[in-house]
Amino acid sequence: MSTSYDVINPATEEIVKNVPHLDIEQTDAVIAKAAKAFDTWRHIAPGERARLLRSFSQVVTDHREELAQLEITNAGHTRSNALWEADNVANVLMYYAASPERLFGKQIPVPGGVDITFKEPIGVVGIIVPWNFPMPIAGWGFAPALAGGNTVVLKPAEYTPLTAIRLAELALLAGIPESVFNVLPGKGSVVGNRFVTHPLVRKIAFTGSTSVGKSIMAGCADQIKRVTLELGGKSSNIIFADADIAKAASGAPGAVFDNAGQDCCARSRILVQRTAFDAFMEHFEVAVKKFRVEDPNLATADMGPLISKKQFDVVESYLDEEIAFTGTAPTGPGYWMAPTVLLPKNTNSKSWREEIFGPVVSVLTFEDEADAIAMANEGEYGLSGSIWSRDVGRALRMSRAVETGALSINSNSSVRFWTPFGGFKQSGLGRGLGPDALDSYTELKNVFISND
Ligand code: NAD
Q1: pLDDT tens-digit series, residues 355-407
Q2: 136 Cβ inside 6 Å of ligand 1
Q3: Domain with CATH 3.40.605.10 in the chain
Q4: Of 421, 401, 371, 385, residue with least CA distance to 236
Q5: Which CATH architecture has domain 4-231+426-450?
Q6: Distance (Å) from CA 207 to ligand 1 centroid
Q7: 236-416 CATH fold
Q8: Does 2 score more than 70 pLDDT?
Q9: Ligand 1 contact via 71 beta carbon (within 6 Å)
Q10: Structure confidence by residue, pLDDT tens digits, 67-91
Q11: How far is CA 163 from CA 23, 74, 140, 186, 193, in A?
Q12: What does DSSP say about strands 236-239 and 113-121: parallel, antiparallel, or unpaired?
């Protein structure tokens, strides 16, 4: 039985739209069409597939204002973030549009003939997306998938389906053939789970919580289905006393409170070398108080509301530790929360260990490099992080020792569409973006041709 879902504007609590949810039969019907479309899409000449992806990129650019406005209304993203996100989809499409003509194989020396490798498409790829960055995360999956010659079924998160639905319409407008890129709004337990169990879906690219990721990986085992996972994080912002403390402190709010902290890369643990603690906190308090939490439509907004009442309640449950200081937030309707800085007792505290996924950061001190490495590597996650030091050797030693996939030194920027992104440990499996992502959307075939 199909149902529907009321999409809520988290800044006003008003209903934006009612979106029908697909049931299993409807999901199966779309998967069957995507499997049929694969027969033609995989055989479209590389140059033509590239041209279609460039055209898709251009159409997204032409609609960036509309897409950004949808995300502001649906997810409470700030205007500057939402525009960046729409542009990111266009950029990722343009980047992978260069791939169809460059899916090079190898020629490997062998006796008695020639050995060559091919990168073959996999088939229908199922992409399951969370609500925190609906547009970019969808694009990080569907752009390399389509470039590799696969067709796509994409399930947006229940809270945030609007931009994905529009992107599917824009793909058609750009000339991508029917049923090549399909968006299926629905429940994770229905549509998402069907991607896992349906034999014609040959690969899953899942982004979301570690707990659901584990169940998806277990489900994929049944068919040895290809799977890549982008999961949770609890990343560290490590600040040595020899760093530019004022710069590290002024960047720290954005590194954790961007998107209201609903960011898998959020640096939600701040580790400050003991001798720099007072200086850091002084600068940090000024920066947090300046961080503007307001109507996300305003160009000046640094942060909007949380996505839902449910998320608000989860995040609020972490506010029972000592609070160093907070920023401000609007009152009235909407799921608003002020950025909050906690001083946990030690590394066993709940706020230090768990992914909060809200505008809350915990600060602890460390003594030396060894201490910082041990603290940063504690726990099951390993996605992102920052290291601040003027000592190049130390920064390099630290970057090799911290067990995470996407680190930045004297910066908090860890996502670029042309560099790899993904997690160590339970933060994920495989890498998205960059030159290597195509390997996760193709199968390597080896062919030997005899001289005889
Ligand atoms: P979630 O795991 O609850 O849901 C993610 C998606 O999976 C949704 O579309 C949901 O409908 C679907 N889903 C739920 N149950 C399913 C099932 N049984 N089978 C198939 N699909 C199912 O996560 P969320 O709350 O939407 O997102 C927040 C989480 O995502 C956080 O843990 C965050 O760290 C993580 N995340 C990770 C990255 C990354 O790149 N590593 C990026 C963004 C978010």
Answers
A1: 999 999 999 999 999 999 999 999 999 999 999 999 999 999 999 999 999 99
A2: no
A3: 4-231+426-450
A4: 385
A5: 3-Layer(aba) Sandwich (3.40)
A6: 5
A7: Aldehyde Dehydrogenase; Chain A, domain 2 (3.40.309)
A8: no
A9: no
A10: 999 999 999 999 999 999 999 999 9
A11: 21, 9, 14, 14, 22
A12: unpaired
